[in-house]
Specification:
disordered C terminus; about 280 residues; mainly alpha; single chain; 2 domains
Amino acid sequence: MSDKPVAALLSSVAFLLMGPVVLAQEQEPVRLAPVAVSQFYAGRDEAPAWSEDQRFDGLIQAIERLSDHGLDPGHYHLQALRARKAAPERRERLATDAWFAAAAHMVHGKLDPLTYETDWTAARRDRNLANDLAAALAAGTVENSLELLAPNSPEYAALMVELSDLRRQQEDPIVVIPDGPALKLGMTAARVYALQKRLVQLGLMQADANTGIFDQQTEQAVKEFQESLARKTQSLFCRRSSSWLTSNAGAGCRKIWDDATFARISPDSAWPLIMKVYASAHT
């Protein structure tokens, strides 16, 4: 008997011993806003919303940009939606579910406000999200539809700018300034060099000014930092202190995420009072 029939027989036996082949099936994502999705399609006679690739691509971009607001895009079916890009029927309701969940978190916050303040009584911001989505679909502005739901206040905008700055700082390890006596003009020490290097990181000094001498330029940069810190404490409800100069950027990001969540659960009309009360209690 030749080798070929024997090899074929052995292969067949091996295949039978392996048993039936079970193909892995994609796990269906857990729906985040099933009631809102059902009501939305009932109101449009079950007409699809994402059959056009341009709309769907706009949704993907909108979800990706949630990171700018401290939200995790992956929570909103991002990976599953990307995998279903070429399957309009399978992506349809999942896409709508992702939009409603993200929109609700942008408007009302992701967490229960009572976990922040046990006596929370402020009314939530009021939006008709179904109308917002329908309008975005009709106008072709899905890409910006979630962004437009963010709190409309300079305080919230400042939080987002600070979050962006902190994320950039995470790419560059923060210089640690050793403990020691107060620095004065003319002093030279390793602490001065570290301080100047940190001020360079913060954009308050030029790199060539890192001389190790506590001169007037260094003193002015420290004053600018202190004034900036004071403005943030007065205008934001962020919990900041002088230790921010050497604080960890990752911890700062987490504080911003907390504050951004607090912002989203706060009604726009309550901002002036909330800013005063929260800042006085937590700064």
